[in-house]
Structure formats: structure tokens, C-alpha cells
Amino acid sequence: MSPPYLASKEKAYQQYNTASHLLNVTFPLVKDQKLFLGIIHNLFNSVEAAMTAILHYEKDLRILPYFNEVDFQSTFNTFRDRSVRRNKIDGSTVALIQELKDIIDLHQKSPMVFQRGASVVICDKQYTLKSITAKDVAQYVNQTREFLDVMERVIRF
């Protein structure tokens, strides 16, 4: 039976490849900005799986005694508090994970999502607007790729 961190690592790459394909192949063909939300969901699943893979790896090495992988917030807190400094992970990665989570939460709670020009706009109950463009999504994809490279570096050694 393979270690759990390998399954999480595989899921991280699968989700990333799906998001990258949606951005680079599907979006230019259909020009539908609502794909941005699907891409962001896949990117979030990718970074969450990568974070879980790192924590499982550290748990296998007995560096980390236990973490609650069922609850995202406790997993994220364990990762931020224990793994980031030890593995020299950049603070922008933590910010990326939090930003993707915030966008997904806003989307789930929002009463309205619409397209405006070349962006998709998420509106919350107080009518605060969050606009997401192709440039933003491409930046999220690049940052996620960098995090997957960091995951490889951590798990390799």
C-alpha cells in the first residue's frame, strides 16, 4: 500500500493539470469567463492536496504527530504554523491558499455571480464586488505551479 502523501501528491497534480487545461485550452475556445470559477476550484483542490501531501510526509517522518485532515481550517493552521517555516515555504504561498479559499467561500455564499466585460464578478450580500480576470487566474495558476514545485522539493528529501 502506498503512503497517503503519494495519493495526495497525485491528486494535487491532477487538479492542477485540469485547471491549467481549462485556462490554456478550453477558455480560449469558448471565451466564457464563468470557467474562471471552475479553474479556481481546481486550483484550490490542488493546493489543498499539496498541503496535505506535505503534512502526511512529515507525519510519516514523525516530525508532525497528528493533524486533522477533515477540517480545512485546522489543516491550514497546522501547515502555516508548523511546516511553512521548517520547509522555507514563501509567505506568498500561504496568501495564495487563503485567497483561493476566500474566493470559493465568497462564491458559495454569494447571491449573484455575473460576467462584466472580460471578468467574472462575485457579489456578496452587502453587494461588495470581487472581480476575477484572466490575468488573475493565470497568476493563480503560476503560483500554484510554484507551490507544487516546492511540494516536490519537500517530499523528495
SSE order in H/E notation?
HHHHEEEH
Sheet with the most strands, sense and barrel status: 3 strands, antiparallel
Instruction: Name the CATH architecture.
Output: Up-down Bundle
Number of domains: 1
Tally of alpha and pi helices: 5
- Cross-sheet strand order for the largest sheet: 1-2-3
- CATH class equals Mainly Alpha
DSSP, total strands: 3
Please, what is the average pLDDT? 94
Shape: globular
The portion of residues forming beta strands comes to: 5-15%
CATH topology: Four Helix Bundle (Hemerythrin (Met), subunit A)
- The percentage helix is over 70%
Can you give a write-up of this model?
By secondary structure, the protein is mainly alpha-helical. The protein has a single domain, classed as Four Helix Bundle (Hemerythrin (Met), subunit A) (Up-down Bundle), CATH 1.20.120. It is built from five helices and three strands; from the N terminus they run ααααβββα. Helix 1 runs antiparallel to helix 5. The radius of gyration is 16 Å and the shape is globular. It starts with a helix and ends with a helix.
